[in-house]
Structures are given as C-alpha cells and as structure tokens.
Amino acid sequence: MSGVEYLSPGSVAEAVKALQVEGARVMAGGTDLLVQMRVGRAKPRVVVDLKRIPGIADIREQDGAFIIGAAASGAAIGEHEGLRKAWPGVVEAANLIGSTQVQGRASLGGNLCNASPAADSVPALIAAGAACVIAGPKGEREAPVEAIQTAPGKTSLAANEVLVAFRLPKRAVYSGDAYLRLIPRTEMDIAVVGAGVSVTLDASGKCVDARVSVGAVAPTALLVEAAGAALIGSSFEEVALAKLEAAVAAAAKPISDKRGTAEYRTKVAAVLARRAALIARDRAKA
Amino acid sequence: MSRKVVNATVNGEPVEFLAGGGQSLLDALRDELRLTGSKEGCGTGDCGACSVIVDGRLVCACLMLAPEAEGKRIETIEGLADNGHLHPLQHQFLEHAALQCGFCTPGLLMASKALLDRNPDPTETEVRYWLAGNICRCTGYDKVVRAVMDAAADLRQEKPR
Amino acid sequence: MARVVSISSRFRDLTGGLDGLDVDARSVRELVRMLEARFPGLGALVEGEMALAIDGEIHQDALMEPLGPHSEVVLIPRISGG
Amino acid sequence: MSDGNQPPANLKVVGTRPIRPDGVDKVTGRAQFGADFHLPGMLTGRIKRSPHAHARIVKIDVSAAEKLPGVKAIVTGAEFDVGAGGDIEAGEHAAAMKDVADNCLANGKVFYKGHAVAAVAATSPEIAAEAVDLIEVAYEVLPHVVDVDAAMAPGAPVLHEDMFTKGVMPKPAKASNVAQKHVMGRGDVAGAFAAADVVVEGRYTTAAVHQGYIEPHACVAAWGADGQSTIWCSSQGQFLVRAMTARILNLPLSDIKVIPAEIGGGFGGKTTVYLEPVALALSRKCGRPVKLVMSREEVFLASGPTSGSSMDIRLAATKDGKLTAAEMTLRYQAGAFAGSPVNLGCMTAFACYDVEHLALVGYDVVSNRPKVAAYRAPGAPMAAFAVECAIDDLARKLNIDPIDLRIRNAVKDGAKTVYGATVRHSAFVETLEAVKAHPHYKAKLGPGQARGVAAGFWFNIGGESSAAVHVDEDGGATVVSSNPDIGGSRASMAMMAAETLGLPIERVRCTVADTTSIGFSGSTGGSRVTFATGMAVVEAAQKVVADLKRRAAQTWECDVAHVDWKDGVATCLDPSKDVKPLSLKALAGKSARTGGPIAAEVSLNAQGAAAGYGVHVCDLEIDPETGRTTILRYTAAQDVGRAIHPAYVEGQLQGGAAQGVGWALNEEYVYNAKGLLDNASFLDYRMPVASDLPMIDTILVEAKPNPRHPYGAKGVGEVPIVPSLAAVANAVSAIVGRRMTSLPLSPAKVLAATRAS
Known about the structure:
heterotetramer; A: alpha+beta; Uridine Diphospho-n-acetylenolpyruvylglucosamine Reductase, domain 2; Uridine Diphospho-n-acetylenolpyruvylglucosamine Reductase, domain 3; Enolase-like, domain 1; 3 domains; five-stranded antiparallel beta sheet; four-stranded antiparallel beta sheet; 14 strands; D: Aldehyde Oxidoreductase, domain 4; Aldehyde Oxidoreductase, domain 3; Aldehyde Oxidoreductase, domain 4; 28 strands; 25% strand
C-alpha cells in the first residue's frame, strides 16, 4: 500500500472535492475497504475518511423521522434508544454486521456503498423505505436505498458523490419491522440469505402496508413488491404467508457459491421472509 | 511514500509516530511503537487478536488506519495491568487456565474489558456473543467465559454500584 | 525363532509379497542384520524408519532391544502426532 | 519404574491447579511470539505464489524485481540443495526432505494455488510486495484434480510422473496419484461376515480441514558472515526446524541456532517448515536479517491442512451386539506430496474395540491441494467418524444402548491391537462407564433434540527428550525444557520438578531452551511432552535430590543411605547423629563448599507411553426449516492416566472437542471449478466462535495411571478431537432420521436430508 494518501476532510464540500482525484475512495468505518486493501482487491491512491465531518456519524430524530449519519457506527445505532424503538429491524440488521469490534466501526453508509449483495442492513433499510441523502458537486439529492446498488460492488453514485445520511420516515402507529439472516455459525459470517420486512397494521391487526426485501439471493438486495402485496389486506393467515413465500422464492435469483447453493438460498429466503413478517407483525401490535 | 506525523494517547501516554496513509493501526502499534502485545491473526477483522479500545470503543486495530489515530485515546493490552498490578480479568484468566497458547489472549482480554466497562454483570450468553469476534482455537471458550464471568463478579465487589 | 510380521506395505515390497517371516535373532540389531542380508534394503528400512511392537510393546527406536526366543515383532510405521 | 508399580500417593503439587509460570507474560502482552522479533537492519520477506492449481513453471524472470530500489535478495527453489541423509521424523510420518524443500519453494512444477515459487527480501513491506508483483512467472497450466476419488480414477491428471504406488505387487507399470497402499488385518473376514447375524455398512466422506492456529507462521533468520546463523521462530520443535533447514540448505546442524519463540497454536501444523529455509536463504544472499510472516490467506493456501477422506466400512456382529468382523477402505488426500496419515487411520480405526476379524486397506493419494501436515491425532478422527457412525447404526439396529454396545466390545488390557501392540493400562471401559453414570447421559432431551455418543483413541508416544534442573543458590529451581510450550507445559514441567524436589511450585520456574542450550528433543506433538519430557524433568530432579542427599550425608558425616529426603528437607536417620534437618535452601546456599553447583541434565528416549481413550456426548437441535444445528450440551470424558495440572488437561479436552465440532459442522476447504481454494479466510472457513458452543463438561478418568511414568501421566492432547466428529454426526442423524455420511454437516446438507427423509 505504498503511496496511499490519507485525507480526513472537515466538511462534505471538502470531501466531494477530495474525491475529484483519480483513484480516491471514500471511507466511513473502513471495515470493508481495509480488508479489500489488505487482500489487494482495492488499491486506492487516496482514502477520504468521512468521520471527521461534523454530524456525519450523528443520529437524530426530526419530527418523528430519523436521520442516521452515513458513518454512524453499528454500536452507536444499537445504543440509540429512540431508533431501536421505532426501527428495531433496521437496528438489528445494523447490529448483525460483523463482530463487536466491527460494530465499533462499521456504518450503514459503508454497508450500502460496498454494494455486497449480502449486506445485512440493506434489506432492512429497503423494507423500511429509507432514503439516502447524497452530496455531490452540485449539491444534495435524495434517492431510495433500493436505487443505490446496481451490481455486486457497484453503485449508482457518481465518483464524486458522497452518501451523507439515511432518512427513515416517521413511523405510523401499529407498524413494525424485522430483519433475519441465515448464517451457518451464530456470528461472524456473511449472510447466506437475509430478509427484511416492515409492516403497518390497522387497529384490527389487518396489514395495510408491507415492504419485503431479501438479500444474498440476487446481484443486489431485492425489493419484492409481490411479497409485500401478499400481506396487504391479510391478517397474516397461512394463505397470505404462503403467497409471500412463493413471491420471495419466485423473485430470488441466487447463485451457488462457497456460502450456499442457489436451491438452499431460495428455500431459506422464503422461510426467513415469513418469519420476519411475523416478528414485524408482533412488533407492530406491541 | 507519504508518511504523516500522528499524535495520539496510548495507554495514557502521549505518543507521536509516523504513519503511512495505508498503514493499519495494528502495524503502527507493532512496528512503530513496538507494542507487540496486539497480535495479527488475520489482518481482516475476523479473529480479534488485535483488539484494542479506541476512545472507549472496541475495534480491531487491523481495521483502522494508523493516521485515523490522530487525537485518539488508545488502550492496548500493554496498559491493562495497572502499574504492575494485574487487572481482575488477567488474574481470572490465569486462575481459570483460560489460555493455552496465549496468542489470542491479549485480544480476548481487551474485548472482555470493553464488555465489563459497559456491562458489569453480563450473562453467559452476553459474554459469548460479545466475544464472538475473538477466535480462540485452543480452549473451546469454556474457561474463557468462566474467567470473564468471575472477573465481572470481582469487579462488582471492588466497586459496589 | 522370532516371528516378524509387518503391517507396512513397504515390507511387502521388499520381501516380494511376504507378510511375515521367522528370523532366528536374539536382538533387534541381529534382526536388522539378518533382514538386510535376506532382503537388501529391509534391514535399513527397519532400522531407519520403522517402529517395532515387540511382544506387544511399542518401541519407537528399538535397535538396542533384546528379543526372546518366541518374540513377536510387528513392524509398524513410526507414530508421531499433532 | 516397572509395570505394576503405582505412582506415589500423597502428592503435594501434582494434581493441583497452580498458575502457570509463563502466565503473566501471556496476559500482559509481554510474551514474544514468532512475529514479535525485531533486529536492527532487518528486511521484510515476501513470497510469490502460484495462481494455478497445477502448472509447469516455464520461466521465472526476476530481473525487473531485482532492479527495484530496496530489494536486497530474491531466491527460488534453485537456491535449495537438499543434503544427503534419511528422512526426518515430523508430524505423522517421516518427512521426505525433497518434498518438504519443493513445498517451501517449487521445483519445476506448482501443485496447488498458493504454492511458493520465489521469495524476496526488501527494506519495507511495501517494496517487498511490489517486488513480488514484478517477478514474472511463465506457466504452462496443466489439468488439475482436487477430489480424492477423482484423483484415484483412471485418466486423472497425474501430479508426479515418478509416483508408482508403493505396497502393490507387482510394482505398477504406470504412474498414478496413489502414493502408497496400506493393507492390514487379521482373521477370516469373509467367513465372519458370512456367519454374521447383522451387518451394517456405509460410505463416508470428510472434508479437508485446517488446524486453524491463530498465529500465522513467522520467523526471523539472520545469516552470519562466518556461516553461523540464528533463527527465531514459532514452531512445535526448534530441533526439527534446525534439522529441516540444515538439510534443505545443506548446512551443518551446529551452524544453525534455533531460538523458539512462544507459539500461537500448532495442533500439528507447526511440525514442519515453510518459511525458515526461505528466510535463511534470503538472509544468506544479502547478509541481513530477514523476517517472513505469512498472511492468514497464505496460511490457508499453503500450510496444513489435514486430509479430506472417503471411506467404505462394513461391520459384522452377532444379534447380542458382539462385533465379529470389520472391513474398511480408507482413501486420504495427501495434498501435493505423498504422506497422508492414512496408515494411522487404519491403525486407529478399530483400536477401541476387540474385533477378531479385520481387513483394512488405506490409500495415500496426492491431488492439487496443499501438502497435508499433522493435525491432532493425525488420521484418527476421520476413521473414527466412519467407525463410530457405523457402530451407532448397529446400536440402533439391535436396539442396544450405544454405550452398552461399546462396553460390550471395548478393548481391555491384554487385548491385541491390529498393529501389534498389546493393550496395557487402559481405562476405556471405565471411561464409558463414567459417561453412562454422568448426569448428562441421564438428562432428558427436549422435543426436537437428540444425543450423540462416540469414542476415540490415540496411541500417545514417548520418544527423545532432554531436560535440566538447576538449583539456584537461594533454594529455588529452574527447569530447562526442550519443548516449546504450546498449551501450558511449563506448568506441568515445573510441577513435576517441584513435586520431586519437595519445593512449593512458586519456587520453580521453567524456561524453554534454544537448540544450543539443551540436549536434543523431539517436537511438541503426539501428546508426548508431559510424558517424555516430563520423565526427563523428573529424572533430572531425582538426580538433583540424590546429589542433595549426598551433600547432606557429607555434611553430617553419615552414610547417604541414612539420609531421607522429604518435602524439600534432608533428615538424618542415623540415631547416633544429633543433627538438625537440612533444607534444600540451606544445602543450596552452601553448594560452593559442598562440591559446586547443583544441577542435572537428562536426555532419554522415553518408552512405555500408554494409549488414551475418549468418549464424547453431544446434545443438539436442528432448525427444521433451515437445517442449522445448535449444540446444546457437550461432555468429554477421557482416560488420562493421572492429570498433572487438571485445568490444562480439561482445557485439552474442551479445545479438542471444539475443533471436532467445527470439523463436523462447518469447516472445510472449498474449491472452485479451476481447482483454486475459494475460502482462504477465517470469515469463510468458519471455525467455531464463542457463541457457537455451550460449556464443555469434562470427566477426567484417573482409574489407570500409567505406571511407566513417575506420576502416572498419559498423553492427553490428541484423543479429544477423535470422538467429536461422530458424536455430533450421530446426534444430527438421529434428528434428521437418516444416516448423515458426509462432513461438514452444513445447513444446506442437513436441510436437503431432512426434506428427503
């Protein structure tokens, strides 16, 4: 890693400027970037560390909505009581990324922009309907989370754009979310499959809104609209859950690799989506 | 190669060292500051042998760039004992024979310290999940978990809440 | 007469397919000499690379051991371990 | 001590749990491991490795790398000059030195991804990395084979054109990947099967797994202008490193001094060399110290692992559960070069059981994988997996409790093993009975849970060891051990010396000496150190005691026969003498005037090691919709002779069981279609983490101390990995409802089997 230049801009504008340089890479927590540098998969000339930008790691509540700084660590997210209460699925997904040590550094911004199909927080954020706040030379723009990943390792962000924050919408009453993943061990693995579900119920417990997203079953995390539709109008009866499972299985286009076979991933994606839907429902009722 | 001067606090002492832009904190600790107690088992954040505490947060020193340490407070295994007095965790690791080869031990101790700093009375399950990022291949974790639980009890006695 | 048997296929290679044979040796040293004379290379193999179970006890380095008149000698690979 | 003698009773130190002498160093970060050394002027080494599974090296062009400023030396396999002499004992077998050398740096051909091709030494890690990139290697890529059965099939790509299967008559006309065929057995197997009431059979496979020590291989080598060199390294045997390095570079042993660093785990994987000859060759070329440290990826690609296997097994039994015959074929991967532990697999497979008719065939098979290294009871866990699963099938078929069935067939003292040893001082039956009586075995299982039981065996060995005991002038003592302390052996060495001398353990320290400071010793491996080196320590301490008694007798002017030594104090038994007892401290303080320093060194070749037997019980449950297994409860029992430091013995049982659980559930070498290892990281290799395991209960069975060791010790380190694979698999099979025959029992495999049954 000879000749890597480390920059720690003090503002978003400075960061955007630093990214004009060829071979510059944004770093938030660094838990993916440093691994890639170590094994030679990434060879940046300049590392632009966002963490010294004021507010970039903050979590704040704004009229019921939450703004999560792109570089907020998993540990900080897990410690934020308001966020935990409003978006338990997003928080549990963020907290599943890596070990305690990795939690001390890993961020939602990094997890999304690393663009791994198996990123834990992404299905949960998509299910939650989260939006990204993106800064570039021409100012800020917003985009839904599902619009960011385009392929493994690729995003729709321009080279000189910086993901600054996530915006989680204000929670309706009777709503809840959940994220589940399957790994062979209890910790430390990359998700073989992940599923995030967010639901809103009416006072009678009937589902009025639902978003279902699955990870590690396609080149990017998928928003499975048919799976959400299967729940809407139901009270989570077996028929609706079977429909949800079928929709997820139909949407899944996994590969077989060292972490799991395509067949296994498809089956388990459906199982996890159903389980997550039920947890989300229970949370919505609580 | 562009090396920058970094000023930080390591185990309570101010230090100044030169860091390359792509150099990890672990390499800086080991090669520049000669604090070789933090170990490299993988270099990719998967084993925890390089666990250190930075501004109160447990991190893998291999997953942090050395220049990021500017202005930070870093705790390493070399600072765990207080003026030659073993920390209750160190004491209990020895009492329980919670180490065999001892290579993962510095990381396990720092991770355990970070746990007990924020949770003085963890359950066995909490200890196991907190330490999941610290691989030990020798012990099967049994004695490690017992040592951490007993050290927690020692610390609770020392400092009644 | 000591009975020499082997579980090593190297023995079989050198003896032309035999699994065992009787040797009138009073010591392992004598045994090694006699094996070498009968099957060139076998004595060296036994001395250099094999452990011996003599009447049920394993000797990793048996060269100095005595043999009884009816000793059973089993040639086995040297055992080490992890 | 002869057979039948019981070890001394009323021990004061042996059997207690003192803090290890090196403990504080290891909890404060002060202990120096292989990568922790730093010398002035030291260079960083780095290795260029093959990207291919199998290829001929057409050309290595180092000219661009040489020109890079900061590059001080580049070496290739041409640098090696394997000296004459026989093979060197290492790990599970004699290491063919030519193969070890070719594995350290390829010679003409690369046999696996990660095979070392060249090495550089440079003034910084960055320059070394750049230089490695600048070395250009032209390859002619060859067809590859990684699966053991495929490697044996006709038409498989042949790795070594000069490999003609040994142990086959007549000698094969064609080269193949089968290095050796082992055949062993006894009795009339066909007849016994024909007469059997019940027969069970199966085909089993296990994946290649890595030892998984957390410390990557590391060394520093410094060549002296006079040809005398020093190597600091982490290994299981400083003498082994010296022998192999000397042979590969054709140097006299006395010109190489190997200083053992602390070792961060080995499990057999550090009983060979990968880096030391390369580092020394680099240092020789540029005259500066060179440090070589593997990355974790390199550890997975190019060191270890142990063999993957495929096995066929048949058991015959009477209807009341007496095993009458067994036949088994074992095919073990050797990796790129001959030398899998398949012979040990054959020898251990039925070592727990008294089976009259046996036929075992083992094949040692090369393929395009890293050369295997010893791993904890090399060869035994895979064989035991097949055997113990088959016995479980038999228990089910006959509706006999699995422990009762094993007790019915257990070897007892006097039984003859298939490899010629007679069973002695064994407590296998007692171990089985201890498990049966343990609350775990009696505990009720919850719905959806199952319990697996399995047994295992390891020979344990003795061998060459040296140790010294020095009495300090103030009455303390130092033990000088010849074996790297991989899991607390300084404690057991110091304890045995303290017991023998009659000193409190705090007054005895233990150090591990370099190759110039103590007599030769075999490696730390084979569960031999507490037994063999311990024997040397005790004999040295006994010599010291004899010397102390002689000095006391001299002082009192009495016959030495009238001097009694107890608890570190000499007492005069001669009633005509009115003298006060003399303590070790008093005698030590006057040593200059009674004949000079008090010290003894003993070198021996320890015989009489007693085998060990283990029995494990595992409770688990499976998520029926995902196939994920959760271990709920685990107990490991073992025949340990006598535990010198029970806490470290328990630790061996717990650590071995944990490794076995990993082997059973998740660990494996995964290859892609190009024959390249696809999971060379801790992340994707998936060793057990703390949250994967419950507490691991232990039962130390001390019913039969080994009378051939002064304190009754048996080796304990290897046995506990052997039963664990089948203990897990038997429980998983019980839940799934069909026999699971292929490790690892990954969620996908288990789910597929659950759905099929």
